[in-house]
Amino acid sequence: AKGLMAGKRGLILGVANNRSIAWGIAKAAANHGAELALTWQGDALKKRVEPLAAELGAMLAGECDVTNTASLDAVFAKIEKEWGRLDFVVHAVAFSDKDELDGRYVDTTSANFDKTLNISCYSFTAVAQRAEKLMTNGGSLLTLTYYGAEKWMPHYNVMGVAKAALEASVRYLAADLGEKAIRVNALSAGPIKTLAASGIGDFRYILKWNELNSPLRRTVTIDEVGDSALYFLSDLSRGVTGEVHHIDAGYHIVGMKHPDAPDI
Ligand code: NAD
Q: Is 93 annotated as a binding residue?
């Protein structure tokens, strides 16, 4: 087999439909020779994920809700049975109640704080615990984050706090797993219109603001995130761990509104 990802087997969590960032990454990895396993969350998404898996010749590793430990265990048991080992995992999973992705962070409830941090942050550690056992030849763990972890963003609220914790967990996991040659990194994607993003208040305004003010004067696509993911999932980045890498048309270097950008 030929290709950057030839001989590599990876699990991808977070494909909901063909607009998912996880789908952009899955396509790029498969096109470069990786063998993939996909999961779905809940019956409603199964019928969307099945044809997408077929398109890439990916294995269906089962239903996976990260709040259900048994479903996570079952997915890794299936991978151990079918493959015996694992080279990479992509974690593209996040959730918060829509009501709290609007208005003020200070109004966050304890229940939604716990739920958001559990699904959007702890689940990556839960995945790492299980992947470690199967990454006998080293490996690459990759998660998805957003600039709202570093700076205040309107409406991002508790999700920004969860992403900050996720980025910190990337560093702690990288230090723990480094001696096994398991690398842990995050991609910080610019705003992209997906199912999850539709829950964020005024998301169109955020997209437009990024388009007008990023150095490349545009937003990014799931295929661009996928291409950047190849570097972290392949041996090209074998010397890199604990990194948060921005794929955002350069937006994170900008300090203020561009003087040429029109008011919106
Ligand atoms: P998406 O809706 O396509 O994907 C989100 C996925 O999370 C879905 O597949 C959903 O099933 C899964 N999920 C939610 N709760 C789950 C649970 N309890 N168990 C298992 N899976 C669960 O949206 P997306 O934008 O592609 O999101 C993927 C990742 O990218 C998320 O971590 C998101 O925060 C991050 N991200 C998105 C953007 C953006 O603008 N879209 C920007 C930066 C980072």
A: yes
196 lines ligand 1 (CB under 6 A): yes
In CATH terms, 9-253 corresponds, of 2.115.10.20, 3.40.50.720, 3.40.50.2300, 2.50.20.10, to 3.40.50.720
Mutate to test the pocket of ligand 1, among 166, 194, 205 (most ligand atoms within 8 A of CB): 194
Residue of 144, 203, 252 to test ligand 1 pocket, by largest number of atoms within 8 Å of CB: 144
| Ligand 1 atom at minimum distance from 14 CA | 9
Domain residue extents for the chain: 9-253
| Residue 184 · residue 174 · CB < 8 Å | yes
What are 23's two structure tokens? Answer: 């789908």
Task: Catalogue the active-site residues.
Answer: 146, 156
pLDDT in tens, the chain (264 residues): 579 999 999 999 999 999 999 999 999 999 999 999 999 999 999 999 999 999 999 999 999 999 999 999 999 999 999 999 999 999 999 999 999 999 999 999 999 999 999 999 999 999 999 999 999 999 999 999 999 999 999 999 999 999 999 999 999 999 999 999 999 999 999 999 999 999 998 999 999 999 999 999 999 999 999 999 999 999 999 999 999 999 999 999 999 999 999 988
| Dihedral angle computed from the Cα positions of residues 62, 15, 147 and 247, in that order, rounded to the nearest 10 degrees | 120
In order, the DSSP letters of 156-190 are THHHHHHHHHHHHHHHHHHHHHGGGTEEEEEEEEP
The CA R_g of the chain, rounded to the nearest whole Å, is 18
C-beta of 40 in contact with ligand 1 (< 6 A): no
